[in-house]
Amino acid sequence: MKKIFIIGGMGAGKSMATKALVEQGLPFIDLDEVGHEVLTRDYVKTDLVEAFGDDILEENGEVNRAALAAKAFVDDVHTSLLNSITMPRIEETFSDRIDELESEGHEAVVVEYSAFKNRDISLAAKADCIIAVLAPLDVRIERAVAAGWDEEDVKRRIAQQITDADRIEVADVVFHNDAAPEDLKQQVGSWWDEFKKTC
């Protein structure tokens, strides 16, 4: 089963590219959603409270992701601490889902990976293809704010991500999403028509 990873900065259009492939019949895994699921597990919450304090929890005992992000993304040390707690659990869950999809006989899977750092030491190490979706920084910020994000939070998160130059260097395919959304979907669809011949 081919593993197609989609990477890109916040607001670049990863979800649009993912949707274009899902509309072609491919299953997909959103690693952000996997990460959110992991945060609901009691043993993970215990580790997070020990690392960041009990004020990251809501009154109902669930993790307040905004409160956690405010503490975890202030610098590399705290971000690494968060990753040391969550990434092993995310990797395990991801591996289980890949196994399930492969056993179902799917020819390919799309994986949306917001937190991508590099190709060698990451969940994308076994990727058959990495697609980078790029867009100008000001456009990305504008899109994220329009989607309901706080502008300062957006800028802080973007600052923690790799650059578009880094993404271009590791990607097998690059799409520029600086025009109409339909243009990106058409580009991705055309690419898939060719790539699926290798599946």
Could you characterize the architecture of this molecule?
With 199 residues, this protein is an alpha/beta fold. The chain folds into two domains: 1-27 and 108-199, P-loop containing nucleotide triphosphate hydrolases (Rossmann fold, 3-Layer(aba) Sandwich); 31-105, Rossmann fold (3-Layer(aba) Sandwich). 53% of the residues lie in helices and 12% in strands. It has helices spanning 14-22, 31-38, 42-52, 65-72, 76-103, 137-146, 151-160, 164-170, 181-195, and strands at 2-7, 28-30, 108-112, 129-134, 173-176. Strands 2-3-1-4-5 form a five-stranded parallel β-sheet, sandwiched between helices. α2 crosses α5 and α3 runs antiparallel to α5. It is globular and about 50 Å long. The model has no long low-confidence stretch (mean pLDDT 92).
Q: Based on DSSP secondary structure assignment, what is the total number of beta strands?
A: 5
Q: Give the name of the CATH superfamily of the largest domain.
A: P-loop containing nucleotide triphosphate hydrolases
- CATH class of the largest domain reads Alpha Beta
The low-pLDDT segments are none
Largest sheet: 5 strands, parallel
- The chain-level structural class is alpha/beta
Q: What overall form do the CA principal axes indicate?
A: globular
Q: What is the CATH topology descriptor of the largest domain?
A: Rossmann fold
Indicate the percent of residues in helices. 40-55%
In quaternary terms, these chains amount to single chain
Rg computed from alpha carbons, rounded to a whole number of angstroms:
17 Å
Q: Helix segment count? A: 9
Number of domains: 2
CATH architecture title of the largest domain: 3-Layer(aba) Sandwich
Helix-strand pattern: EHEHHHHEEHHHEH
Strand order of the largest sheet: 2-3-1-4-5
Determine the N-to-C terminus distance. 7 Å
Mean of pLDDT = 92
Residues in β-strands, percent: 5-15%
